[in-house]
Amino acid sequence: MNSENFTLSEKIVSPSYIRQGSQARRSHEQLIRHLLEQGKCPEEGWSESTIELFLNELAVMDSNNFLGNCGVGEREGRVASSLVARRHYRLIHGIGRSGDIAAIQPKAAGSSLLNKLTNSVVLDILKLAGVRSVASCFVVPMATGMSLTLCFLTLRHRRPKARYIIWPRIDQKSCFKAMITAGFEPVVVENILEGDELRTDLEAVERKMEELGAENILCVHSTTSCFAPRVPDRLEELATLCAKYNIPHIVNNAYGVQSSKCMHLIQQGARVGRIDAFVQSLDKNFMVPVGGAIIAGFDESFIQEISQMYPGRASASPSLDVLITLLTLGASGYKKLLSERKEIYLFLAQELKSLASAHGERLLHTPHNPISLAMSLDGLQAESDKAVTQLGSMLFTRQVSGARVIPLGKEQTISGHTFRGFMSHSEAYPSPYLNAASAVGITREDVTLCIKRLDKCLKTLKKELNVAKSCSQAPPSSQEDTAGE
């Protein structure tokens, strides 16, 4: 209610009570005012009542919620189900206009304000997470793979002769298919083995730049967050090469916002060389439903160019989800989650190392990977070729999700390109292994229960293998042939 309505209310209920209620509402409104003034994530999280008040205020600004609205167009924000309307807080028009996902909608002032505020708050969080010099970003209602495709398609207009994308290998289908979908030819650069780690082959990248010619290369497509034993690409060195040869550089930072190390690499790469854009998932970094990503960069005009490349309007759901989440957590709450994730990474590493030792295996030494860990499975491989994949099945049926079991020698063909040793990021990694990750939101209880079930699975599997071996080695029972008697 506005001040006039509060004054009128004093004629119905005791003025002292009304003033108290008015003061309570002003507390909510003050938080909203600070958000509108600063465009930053509040330090302390908001209550649900404040968030709902704010969203309701935005919704009544959209034409589909005007009391006297008369819609005669083809897109009037009509919704058949009241359940769907409530699910979206009656913010139905989405974001953007037909020619620009960042444009203001005349019919939807509230949804447009939501979109602008979300991008501003997310930009603040990217700076807080470590990329201090990021200039611009926007939330796009597509997951990481399609968001990368949008970046590549935007670069096509700047580099019409280019047909190649140089890509240090990472065995993840969507980032490979992103290049194919955009109509480019990925030039796969195999990683080099340093100890247990798979690292960027910088010499091979530079050879490809010289061999193909800079004008024929759309960009270098590098990666930060990845499954061990692969570690983040050498971004500083790649960025320097891109600056040297005047080649754009797009970074797949899928779940790297939660890692200060990944964000530091991006910051340093932009400082010493060239990074045109970096893309990160909403669900992996902010614990919201799948369906959104953040495209960010250091040149505001280029990020605006990418947003204008998006055809048509877009769903506001990813923007709404991440804004609600960040207002709930506040900057302090998100920083606490990042700190807890780091602590649990160390706990997971310790527990996995102890378990590996108990079963004659070892924790692979991958200090440059700040999120994912890998435990060797050489003993299982020695027992049986099928034992490694069998372990993966056992873990899945025992509700251990996210653990990846990587056997030797698997092949996979994607869009005509055959990857040998697929999922291991290498044609011939020397050891089968199991992955586990400490991602934002993980708890110590998750780790403890995972280790307990993994230990049980390994013991059960080894027992079964020993029984099978004993049966196969036992001599056949001797029986006299009495058929002629």
Q: Which key phrases capture this entry?
A:
single chain, 485 residues, alpha/beta, Aspartate Aminotransferase, domain 1, 3 domains, three-stranded antiparallel sheet, 14 strands, 13% strand, disordered C terminus
What would you note in describing this structure?
This protein has 16 helices and 14 strands. The protein has helices at 3-9, 15-38, 48-59, 82-87, 109-128, 144-158, 173-181, 202-212, 235-245, 260-272, 282-286, 300-309, 317-358, 378-383, 387-397, 444-473; strands at 136-140, 164-168, 185-189, 192-194, 197-199, 217-223, 249-252, 277-281, 293-297, 372-376, 404-406, 411-414, 417-420, 433-437. The chain has a 7-stranded mixed β-sheet, with helices on both faces. Strands 10-14-11 form a 3-stranded antiparallel β-sheet. A two-stranded antiparallel ribbon has the order 4-5. α10 links the parallel β7 (249-252) and β8. It is globular, with a radius of gyration of 27 Å.
Write the layout of secondary structure elements.
Elements lengths: L2 H7 L5 H24 L9 H12 L22 H6 L21 H20 L7 E5 L3 H15 L5 E5 L4 H9 L3 E5 L2 E3 L2 E3 L2 H11 L4 E7 L11 H11 L3 E4 L7 H13 L4 E5 H5 L6 E5 L2 H10 L7 H42 L13 E5 L1 H6 L3 H11 L6 E3 L4 E4 L2 E4 L12 E5 L6 H30 L12
Parallel strand pairs: 2-3, 2-6, 6-7, 7-8
Antiparallel strand pairs: 1-9, 4-5, 8-9, 10-14, 11-14, 12-13
GO biological process, one term: selenocysteine incorporation
GO cellular component, one term: cytoplasm
Keywords: Cytoplasm, Protein biosynthesis, Pyridoxal phosphate, RNA-binding, Selenium, Transferase, tRNA-binding
